[in-house]
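User: I'm writing a short report section on ligand binding and want a predicted complex to refer to. Could you take this sequence and manganese (II) ion and write out the structure as tokens? A short remark afterwards would be nice.
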Amino acid sequence: MDAPMDDTPAPAYVIRGDTGDWEVVIGLEVHAQVVSQAKLFSGASATFGGAPNSHVSLVDAAMPGMLPVINRVCVEQAVRTGLGLRAHINHRSVFARKNYFYADLPQGYQISQYELPVVGEGTVILDMPDGSSRAVGIERLHMEQDAGKSMHDQHPTKSFIDLNRAGVALMEIVSKPDMRSPEEAGAYLRKLRSILRYLGTCDGNMEEGSMRADVNVSVRPVGSTELRTRCEVKNVNSVRFVMQAIEVEAARHVEIWEAGREVTQETRLFDPGRGETRSMRGKEEAHDYRYFPDPDLLPLEFDDAFVEGIRATLPELPDDKKARFIQDFGLTPYDASVLVVDRREADFFEAVAQGSDGRRRDGKTAANWVISTLFGTLNKRGLGIDESPVSAENLGKLIDLIADDTISGRIAKDVYEIMVETGEAPDRIVEERGLKQVTDTGAIEAAIDAVMAANPDKVEQVRGGKEKLLGWFVGQVMKQTQGKANPGMVNELLRKKMGLLDA
Ligand code: MN
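Assistant: Sure. The structure tokens for the complex follow:
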């Protein structure tokens, strides 16, 4: 099942220059750390953190004579990710050495994939804030090793090296240059992160560095199809920073072109504090790295059974879930896309909308309570859905109490607040605190009669044409019933008794 696509063009992101309008062309390379116990070519722990150099095997330290051994789980994770990106899985792929010097790269080369990556072309569907969808092409996904970390703040005159990260498996996911605005780049990263988390192949924690983006940016006059020189902004580690980096980098390009100069292809760094990018180094070409097939590793070869075996274990992914929520619960594309970002949140919504007794509740009402009310509570308290003080079952019961007129929408807000504070079930709260809505005509009429009998002068005024006083009567009756009378019924019965309604 595919999410419905919207053909209306995106509201264009246009940079207005002195010589005309410019559009921005964006491609992203995302390094995603593979969820696995051990590293890509050694048995050392791939866990984040730990004392410096405590997760380092002789292979990771590149001791003489050490040989890499491929970690099957990492390969499976890469294939799983490729399938989740609706991508072509290459049944034969090859590891290559990418040669360059880094102080924290003891081998003197990175084992990566070059001409034959494990995953080929695929697609990511973006869910835009206006409810529309766009497709962004995936160029490839290849596996490679991470490098270690240089630490320059441990000693006044020396730099230290921590090799814990050296050799950890990464997936480099390369998009096509299909994005045209910072918003689309942000939506792409969020969607990619969501898919990786559903698949369980990357935890997506950008602040811990498990997902880092290299952002390729160029600009061109609106209407042109040329690709001008691009710059790569390296290692940006939050969605917000990626969007900011694109904005400032694109503006810089426009300024250069309009001044009659040329943009130089180079690698740049984004400085969020100053809101600018700075040149880091001239961009290398692929041939600078002297790639060649790694003679220590055999090519990876998969048969159909291997790939299909992994496909059989894929969960329902966000796009399919979104389409199902729209279809089954009548949700808007926007609400559905918000609810499916996180698998546990989607499950929570479904448990609310689909009662445990199999009785389906109104989907839009359930979505409103989850998105507007519950997510609001969780945000305010900094809680995840797993820590929600209100269970899905109880939120569902609350919706039932409104639907069957046990309580009014107004009282429901109060009941919800009590649920947040106490974690109690709504029916119990309503029962114990006597919050049931009074819809019994006799009880409401009795309250009206009492108020009218106590205020004969005001009754006369209303009957004499001072209808404004009716509001005061409604207030008195509500007071008599502790706010539990159904306000619509109070109004109607009052008008009847005052003789203001045709019988
Ligand atoms: Mn890379």
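A remark for your report: Residues 357 and 393 are 10 Å apart (CA to CA). Residues 31, 144, 172 surround manganese (II) ion (CB under 6 Å).
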